[in-house]
Amino acid sequence: MARHVKKGDTVMVTAGNDSGKVGEVLRVIPDENRVVVQGVNIRTRHMKPTQQNPQGGLLRKEMPIHISNVSPAVGRPAARGRGAPQAGRAQGPRGGPAAVGEAIPLFYCLPGGGGAAVPGPVRDEG
């Protein structure tokens, strides 16, 4: 699954018990497609007293949630590095010029253009 967030991003939880909460990504676990978000999916573990922790007690810890349940937070940049669009240039998903850095004619960016056909000369209908 594509990872649309990385460590340090501010995200909003879109599904689950903590839906609507906003927090920072503390860790990404790519093998399991999970992320740990600060203040989200907190679980309590009852710790038995040990020599390192003679008091014991309750340990509260953020647990991972599936990466599909988070999205970049509203009001913040969805993709890092996105600047103001340049006139006459198409932008790729990360805000840079599309493909290999070449300028794409504005025709291909307009609705119905779709890059299917190159605009040609105007034909007379008579």
Overview of this protein structure:
The protein is mainly β and 126 residues long. It has two domains: 10-48 and 55-72, SH3 type barrels, CATH 2.30.30; 79-114, no CATH class. Helices cover 0% and strands 26% of the residues. It contains no helices and seven strands. The strands form two sheets. Strands 6-3-2-1-7 form a five-stranded antiparallel beta sheet, with no helix packed on it. It starts with 9 loop residues before the first strand and ends in a 54-residue tail after the last strand.
List keywords for this structure.
single chain; 126 residues; mainly beta; SH3 type barrels; 2 domains; five-stranded antiparallel β-sheet; two-stranded antiparallel sheet; 0% helix
According to CATH, what is the class of the largest domain? Mainly Beta
Helix content: under 10%
Number of helices: 0
Cα Rg:
24 Å
Quote the average pLDDT.
76
Q: What is the spatial order of strands in the main beta sheet?
A: 6-3-2-1-7
User: What spatial form do the alpha-carbon principal axes imply?
Assistant: elongated
* CATH topology descriptor of the largest domain: SH3 type barrels
Q: Got a strand count?
A: 7
Low-confidence stretches: 76-82
Number of domains: 2
**Termini separation (Å)?**
55 Å
CATH architecture of the largest domain: Roll
Helix vs. strand class: mainly beta
Percent strand equals 25-35%
Main sheet?
5 strands, antiparallel
